[in-house]
Amino acid sequence: MKLRDKNQIMDEMSMKRALTRIAHEIIEANKGVQGVAVVGIRRRGGPLAFRLADLIESIEGVRPPVGVLDITLYRDDLTALANQPQVHRTEVHFDITGMSIVLVDDVIYTGRTVRAGLDALIDLGRPKRIQLAVLIDRGHRELPIKPDFVGKNVPTSREEVVSVCVREIDGDDKVTIQELVP
Amino acid sequence: MGISAQSTQFNRRKDLLGLKDVSNEEIELILNTAIPMKDIIGREIKKVPTLRGKGMITVFYENSTRTRTSFELAGKYLSADTSNLAVSTSSVQKGETLRDTIKTLEMMGPDILVMRHGMTGAPHYVAQNTSMRVINAGDGTNEHPTQALLDMFSIREHKGRLAGLKVAIVGDILHSRVARSNIYGLAKFGCEIRVAGPPTMIPPGLDHLGVKVCFNLKDAIRDVDVVNVLRIQRERQQTGLFPSLEEYSELYMLRPEHLSLAADNAIVLHPGPINRGVEISTDIADSDTAVINEQVTNGVAVRMALLFLMMGGRRDEIAA
Fold first, then answer.
1. What pLDDT, on the 0 to 100 scale, is given for residue A76?
2. pLDDT tens column, A35-52
3. Does B9 contact chain A (CB < 8 Å)?
4. Nearest CA to B74 among B126, B114, B133, B102?
5. Which residue in B28, B187, B60 sits closest to B136, CA to CA?
6. Residue B117: strand, helix, or coil
7. What are the percentages of helix, strand and coil residues in chain B, rounded to 5?
8. Angle of CA points A103, A108, A112, to nearest 5°
9. Could you give the dihedral angle defined by the CA atoms of residues A69, A74, A80 and A81, in that order, rounded to the nearest 10 degrees?
10. Residue A108 forms beta bridges with which residues?
11. Is B235's pLDDT higher than 70?
12. pTM score
């Protein structure tokens, strides 16, 4: 399966602005950062969670705890995959019980990753509430899941792929829509 | 889903019968996967839904405390349904053949069979005659692959690597499936392997595997990073391969004075159950250099990794 870039919808600056706005919205929705923690879903939700924590700290002067969730073992499509995906560690080194958790991912699509993330999170403790922040909402939900904070709504067709690049993993920051090469 | 399925060839493998024919990449994948699995064992909620709806059955024709329980808990922590055939109270005692017993179990629908048998090659025979995936939990004096995997995991956890380490395996090498699987596995990663034990308990041909044979414990232990002490298997000791347990312990029991010859921060492994005062002195068994208790936890983690890697994908996609 080969993909080619169709068009770029975000660059470094627009990603930064979107994340900064989300950071403000998180603070506003939670009336501060007391009891708030940010947890990213591997892989690209991880770096985004750390960036949101940095931004929240620069606005409020308090850094919320940050964690990274590996949801591989919670996927609902494992038996449909020919090969098992690599499992990585979940690194949430604080007690989430009683906290307001902001779950972070790069793209929300069917909602199945978030469903897995919610289950993985709840197995670590009992948060007071869970909110969802995503950089891109591309539609086509298959589960009743709705993000609380969205960087950009992007209408897509199911044949397209939304590719989020983050400098921590990919070397640069950008969001592109890709399509299959026939 | 949002994350890509990194392709691994592992679950194209139907069975795990020994480390002899397992690649370095597969071993590394198992060991790497065992790291997040070990985290799960340390959590308050020790359960993930990964293998929901999968069935696992353990059939042990020989006694076992840790291996069988370890597999069973590994399956349960991953939400598989696990069941154990108690051979001593089963129809095996009425003369049912191995093949018929396995066929009967297969018809109950489990996906994976974990098997220990006193005969070398029994799991291989079973694997060829069943659609279930088969994991060898020890066959005769041949292999015990999951023990070697947990030993390798424990070594890597303490030493940060496997490559280039010096490892001494001490005891009854001839009858030890643990030794055999360790030798196959460690040799693939470029470890320098030495064995020590009574001459009657050293099988011929070890030099072909690159193993150095020592008949003196001190020679074997000098400068090593790891000492893996084997249990003297009293159940396989009816043939008089050494005069007495007293003489064995005099010559081959690991004591602090031996360990002082090893490299700094050397660790001591033992597959258990330990015979205190026979192959290992109580001082060492209870010291910080012994990682024997950690090995037990690591065993569950490694078996969780293996079950996860083997039970993914649909059965009709598996190359037999």
1. 87
2. 999 999 999 999 999 999
3. yes
4. B114
5. B60
6. strand
7. 45, 15, 40
8. 85
9. 30
10. A137
11. no
12. 0.93
Mean pLDDT in residue range B113-129: 96
| CA distances, A123 to each of A92, A143, B306 (Å) | 12, 20, 22
CATH number of the structural domain A13-27+36-75+87-156? 3.40.50.2020
Amino acid (one-letter) located at B119: M
Catalytic member of B33, B67, B141, B146: B67
User: For the residues B195-218, what does the mean pLDDT come to?
Assistant: 93
Domain ranges of chain A: 13-27+36-75+87-156
| Cβ pair A131, A56 in contact under 8 A | no
ipTM score of the complex? 0.90
Q: Do B39 and A90 touch (CB under 8 A)?
A: yes
Residues 88-147 of A with CB under 8 A from B: 88-90, 105-110, 112-113, 116, 119-120, 123-125
In the predicted structure, residue B318 carries a pLDDT above the cut 80? no
In three-state form (DSSP H/G/I as H, E/B as E, the rest C), the secondary structure along B190-204 is CCEEEEECCHHHCCC
Q: Is the pLDDT of residue A83 over 50?
A: yes
Going along chain B from its start, the domains and CATH numbers come out as 10-144+297-317 (3.40.50.1370), 145-294 (3.40.50.1370)
